[in-house]
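Consortium newsletter contribution from the modelling node. Members have asked for a concrete example of what our holo predictions look like. Here is one, prepared for the ribose-5-phosphate complex that several groups have been discussing at recent meetings.
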Amino acid sequence: MYIIGGTASKKVAEDLSGKIKVPMAKTITKRFPDNEFYVRILDDISNEHVILVQTTYPDPNIIEMLILQNAVKEANAKEISVVIPYFGYARQDTKFQEGEPISAKAMAHLIGLNADRVITVDPHKEHILDFFSISAYSCSAIPEIAKYLKNKKIDMILAPDKGALNRAKNASEIIECDFDYMEKTRIDGETIEIKPKKLNAENKNVAIIDDIISTGGTMAKSIQHLKKHGAKKVIVACTHGLFAGEAIKKLKSAGAIEIISTDTIQGPYSKVQISPIISPFFKNYRR
Ligand code: R5P
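And here is the predicted structure:
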């Protein structure tokens, strides 16, 4: 059994390798002058179970994943498990308007061509797993985020919309604090509206938890609401920190005292590791 980490998820792959005691396969990777991706697997992986770990965001990492899968297949691996820490394009999971693609379905089709099973973390909606024709599983980073928040004297967890409610509830049970939610309407990729709602936040330390922070608009609006309701300190936490454009600046100027994400997308705010939640999937496969 071997693990191969794509360039977007090398660290997660190494953490997983340490946890399940499966070696990393030796590889050479590079970019050609025109930026096309190259990989060569140096270990003999024929007849082995190979775990490939690669976030499929941004777009070049999708191609990298497909090329890696092909390299593993061509090297005659017996079984391919694909771990996708952040599954890009999951939010276009339906045709919102006629003429649109179901991007998550297209991704699932391509990735499923050279894989036996797929594991992803906090997909935007669980039903994207049904787009795969192979076994597909998800796991939640929320317990790990909650563990990280546990010593931060949090009084309340807030979900910025109903879609995030179960995650907030789950975190609040682990932290043993209150939870509440807001009602958000998305106008477009950059604009959201939050329905006015009375929040019991007076003098409280609040952590807002969502699956994704992209532009930071959702979190910034939520912070403003909490502040209006007298919140003392506000922390923002997410599984997937995309932090597009000016997101960090927006969050800081809205008053977030801490920004937390996991390492599904590696960056300066990746304070929570996902390897502990992925490793149990492979406990039956150890050498
Ligand atoms: C959408 O429903 C997601 O759960 C997030 O709330 C959303 O992707 C966050 O986007 P942004 O940071 O751009 O507001």
